[in-house]
Write a structure and sequence with these properties.
This protein is of the alpha+beta class and 172 residues long. The chain has four helices and nine strands, in the order ββαββαβαβαβββ. Strands 5, 6, 7, 8 and 9 form a five-stranded mixed β-sheet that branches. A four-stranded mixed β-sheet has the order 2-1-4-3.
């Protein structure tokens, strides 16, 4: 849902700063004169900024204005792709084929500009073999080295060892 804009007679200010369709400033005038000028041109008077003193209004066809605003919003959303944290779950004694597959997925996530959290879950007697987890983390870090940077060193929390990788912007 888009932003709500006041147009023509619904603008409540007594005086407004008026700009034309191209963005050129016409000047400050009473609201009645501004609406009259817009009607002469066959356009609408749209309140763009109500918080300014006096409020800023634009003489433009309202449908065209809404279309331009939607286009601006889409452009802003384009740049915001990614940025989420994706998780890869491993076990200390994972098979090499499974590990390669998960590393490939992690690379894809990093190339989509997402962070990747690699978790190694230990169960039962595996907790006595924590060095296997650290070796696994170093192998993953080596494989992901060309597309990522390790955010911090591996940490142990409960029965899990985890590390987060962030995309490397320089080496794409």
């Amino acid at each position: 849902m888009g932003k709500f804009y006041r147009i023509n007679q619904y603008i409540q200010a007594k005086e407004v700063r008026v700009i034309d369709e191209t963005g050129k400033q016409i000047g400050v005038m009473p609201i009645f004169n501004a609406i009259q000028k817009a009607r002469e041109l066959g356009k609408d008077l749209v309140e763009i900024t109500e918080n300014a003193n006096p409020p800023i209004c634009k003489i433009i066809d309202f449908q065209k204005f809404k279309y331009q605003e939607e286009k601006k919003e889409k452009e802003q959303k384009k740049g915001k792709k990614g940025g989420e944290i994706k998780e890869i779950l491993l076990t200390p004694f994972i098979s090499s084929n499974d590990l390669e597959y998960r590393i490939k997925k992690a690379k894809a996530y990093l190339q989509d500009n997402n962070k990747v959290k690699v978790r190694i879950r230990f169960r039962g007697r595996e907790l006595g073999k924590q060095d296997f987890g650290h070796r696994l983390i170093s192998r993953v870090a080596l494989e992901l080295g060309d597309v990522s940077i390790k955010e911090s060193e591996a940490k142990f929390a409960g029965k899990e060892l985890f590390v987060t990788f962030i995309p490397n912007k320089n080496k794409k």
